[in-house]
Design goal:
The chain is built from six helices and three strands, in the order H-H-E-H-H-E-E-H-H. The chain has helices spanning 2-42, 46-57, 65-72, 76-88, 110-133, 142-146, and strands at 62-64, 92-96, 104-108. 19% of the residues are buried.
Length: 148
């Protein structure tokens, strides 16, 4: 009896593991396709685009560096390099936190907002196309899309 339970558990874990691997691979392929489209059409990397998107949705279009890092799933070193690139392109500026002079905000500029707005339609088209190409429409169920 134990062997049957163990086999069923192994089979169940294997199915879940296989499904997870397929999902990770599909997301990776979609990321590559969308990233290429954003780079080709707007000279924006996917992380740069997402940083602009997150900042635009934030109160006063600004976030502390560590908050931006958390929103993008990046570590401190990666977010520093990303913000430096955005600043060089004049898409963001840094500002000191008025309450804590050690705190640094990243603030979306009007140039950054315009660049984001110019790229949004192409991002949506590239994302929709890649989702369809890699057969992921069903994964984005109404329940997932409706979540906040």
């Amino acid at each position: 009896m134990r062997d049957i339970v163990r086999q069923e558990l192994t089979f169940s874990m294997s199915k879940r593991s296989d499904a997870w691997l397929k999902l990770v691979q599909a997301v990776g392929q979609i990321e590559v396709a969308v990233g290429k489209a954003m780079q080709d059409k707007h000279r924006l990397g996917l992380s740069e685009y997402r940083a602009l998107q997150v900042l635009a949705r934030s109160p006063d279009s600004e976030l502390r560096m560590q908050e931006l890092a958390a929103n993008l799933g990046l570590n401190q070193s990666s977010i520093s390099r990303l913000v430096e690139r955005l600043e060089r392109a004049e898409l963001t500026v840094r500002d000191l936190c008025p309450d804590d002079k050690r705190g640094v905000y990243t603030v979306l500029t009007e140039t950054g907002r315009a660049r984001l707005q110019g790229a949004q339609a192409d991002y949506g088209k590239a994302l929709d196309s890649a989702i369809e190409r890699y057969g992921c429409e069903d994964l984005l169920s109404a329940k997932l899309v409706a979540s906040p």
